[in-house]
Design a protein that fits this description.
Number of strands: 30
Radius of gyration: 31 Å
Distance between the termini: 53 Å
Helix content: 25-40%
Strand order of the largest sheet: 3-4-2-1-5-6-7
Structural class: alpha/beta
Shape: elongated
């Protein structure tokens, strides 16, 4: 029997909510691969029935007429009236056939438990996952998985997840797991301690719905007040930004346990910034800017008897200080007796205070308090980013043309500074010359002293090639320097394309900073700023920001530097013009957004910042275009 398809003519938000309601609040569930024998299908069906689910449950397996008292049919489309949701536990080679049946039966959502897809290395498995993705896009039937362990919805009394679950408490926490196996250890112990959950989902390979889709649903759900996520990989940076903004607007903390801090896969970087910035550094920065709370462990609350001396004190304190928030923190971990004495039962046992669970263990407890304070600061100081801030600037087309004119090679310093100037980033005066006489004329026009630099697209690091001479104060020095610098460059690379010599204003004084950009494969351009010299070389004292950067974000980046006291005026020195650096960061942020598809790396080294009120100036810059496939 073919059911009526109610997905027709629905708007995207309505279709999304219809599918999510089918996932978490189905009225009719079909378990494809239902079996009397132990296994995932058997475990899921047993827990659905045991947990008190009030809807209808059907088995789908041509070998049985009934499983656990539920009627069983040979195919999904044979179920009278169809089903809202299908849970699929059949060999991977048969999954697409099941999906075709689901489409005929009017199923609104499918949870594929089966493995053997994108998590495997063979091409056939990857193609099967691609087929699932294509099916979801074509039909509008939303899919959870494949290669996951299932879903729990306490409002629907539905434990449709394999595992040793006796019960799951209902409560305000919604959880998303990309790794289903970790759900046991993250859910069962806190359940035993009284934690409650609204929804728990394991997303598996995320062929269709991903973790951010479920975050969005939890944010819009009135019962869910806190979102917890175990994440191995963020797949869509824009969707993450969107749900983080929604969570902040709703005042719902988004707590993420993100694994994978290894830099083993970090690519080789031509620019200095790329070698300083790892992928996990970028993720830390993204989470901090978006107000996402990143955690690295878990702890669960103890019980306290409010009739005990400690409990009586706890009850009395809020009456004396009604304007304060109190958090209960035990200084030990492990099991603690519930009553005042081990031989007496508790009179008034509680595990939370004013809706806040007790914090267990000094380290984890203090971390939780720190995260709470930081989240409150984030909400107070939060500024939203408009679409205009993310969009291209009026000079974007000209900037792209400069980069593309380099035909894939790194831009020479002069070209790079032309690009920076488009964005009102201050640079040194300079002129390209091809003879000693022209060099002298340029020096006299700019004003002594000057700097000579070799210009060649084949020599990215000019100092190593002997291609930089500083503080040339007269005509003789410039003439001799011109000949010397050209000879050094030819000795360094006989095949180098030498365009000439750059005669540049000699800028002295000020503090050296490094400013740069590197590309993250998920989040795009990441901006790094730090003090130059030993601070960046030895101490790696850099801070990251993800554009677009507001003025507040730029100031925070500078304030987080360990060497910020040097800019503030240490040991009686004058303070540096931090506002000028903030302005450069804002302009550079827009440049990075405009060129996110064109440029792989940028190094501004050094950026000199002068005394307060005297501005800043770029002395040298390297821009490396994105490598494009032929």
């Amino acid at each position: 029997m073919q059911a009526v398809d109610s997905r027709q003519a629905l708007s995207e938000p309505d279709a999304f909510h219809q599918a999510m309601n089918a996932i978490f609040h189905p009225k009719r569930i079909a378990i494809v691969g239902a079996s009397q024998r132990p296994g995932f299908a058997n475990s899921i069906q047993r827990l659905i029935l045991k947990g008190g689910y009030e809807g209808e449950v059907f088995g789908v397996n041509p070998r049985y007429d009934e499983v656990m008292g539920c009627p069983c049919y040979p195919t999904i489309d044979a179920i009278p009236g169809g089903a809202d949701k299908a849970i699929v536990v059949v060999p991977s080679q048969h999954v697409m056939g099941v999906l075709d049946q689901a489409e005929k039966a009017g199923v609104k959502a499918v949870n594929i438990i089966t493995s053997g897809f994108g998590e495997q290395s063979d091409d056939d498995a990857h193609e099967r996952q691609n087929q699932i993705r294509d099916f979801a896009r074509r039909t509008g039937i939303r899919i959870v998985g494949p290669n996951c362990l299932g879903i729990i919805s306490t409002p629907a009394k539905m434990i449709a997840k394999s595992g040793p679950y006796d019960h799951v408490n209902r409560g305000p926490v919604g959880i998303v797991f990309q790794s289903g196996l970790l759900a046991y250890s993250a859910v069962i112990p806190p359940t035993d301690r009284g934690f409650g959950y609204s929804y728990i989902v394991t997303t598996g390979n995320e062929a269709d719905l991903d973790a951010t889709d479920f975050m969005r649903y939890y944010i819009e759900d009135d019962e869910t007040r806190v979102l917890g996520c175990f994440i191995e990989q963020f797949r869509d940076a824009d969707k993450l930004r969107e749900v983080a903004d929604l969570a902040a607007n709703a005042g719902k903390p988004l707590v993420v346990l993100k694994i994978g801090r290894s830099e083993g896969g970090q690519r080789a970087a031509r620019a200095h910034t790329g070698s300083l910035v790892g992928s996990d550094d970028v993720i830390d920065t993204v989470m901090r800017q978006l107000g996402i709370i990143r955690v690295y462990g878990q702890a669960y609350p103890n019980k306290v008897d409010l009739d005990s001396p400690v409990g009586k004190v706890m009850k009395a304190i809020p009456e004396k200080y009604p304007d304060k928030m109190f958090l209960i923190l035990s200084l030990v971990t492990g099991k603690v007796q519930e009553g005042y004495r081990a031989d007496q039962p508790p009179v008034e046992p509680v595990m939370e205070w004013d809706g806040v669970p007790f914090l267990q263990g000094t380290e984890n407890g203090l971390r939780a308090i720190r995260h709470m304070n930081r989240y409150a600061e984030f909400l107070r100081g939060r500024t939203t980013t408009t679409d205009e801030q993310r969009g291209p600037s009026p000079v974007a087309e000209r900037a792209v043309a400069i980069v593309r004119a380099a035909n894939g090679r790194p831009l020479v310093e002069r070209e790079a500074k032309q690009l920076l100037s488009l964005y009102d980033i201050p640079v040194t005066q300079e002129r390209l010359v091809t003879s000693a006489d022209d060099a002298v004329a340029a020096a006299e026009s700019i004003g002594y002293p000057v700097v000579l630099k070799i210009e060649s697209p084949d020599i990215a690091h000019k100092t190593e090639a002997g291609g930089v001479l500083l503080n040339l104060a007269d005509e003789q020095g410039v003439r001799h320097g011109y000949d010397q610098i050209v000879a050094n460059a030819k000795a360094y690379n006989a095949d180098a394309d030498i365009r000439g010599v750059l005669v540049q204003q000699m800028v002295s004084g000020g503090k050296e900073l490094i400013l740069g950009m590197t590309q993250d494969p998920t989040f795009g351009p990441a901006i790094a700023v730090g003090l130059g010299g030993i601070f960046v070389e030895i101490l790696k004292d850099v801070q990251l920001g993800i554009p677009p950067l507001t003025e507040g974000m730029s100031r925070e980046m500078i304030s987080r530097l360990r060497g910020k006291a040097i800019l503030e005026g240490a040991r009686g020195e004058a303070a540096s013009d931090v506002s000028a650096v903030v302005n450069v960061l804002g302009c550079f942020s827009q440049l990075c957004l405009d060129l996110r598809d064109e440029v792989a790396e940028i190094d501004i080294n050094p950026l000199l910042v002068f005394e307060d009120g005297n501005g800043a100036c770029v002395v040298d810059c390297l821009i490396v275009p994105t490598t494009r496939d032929a």
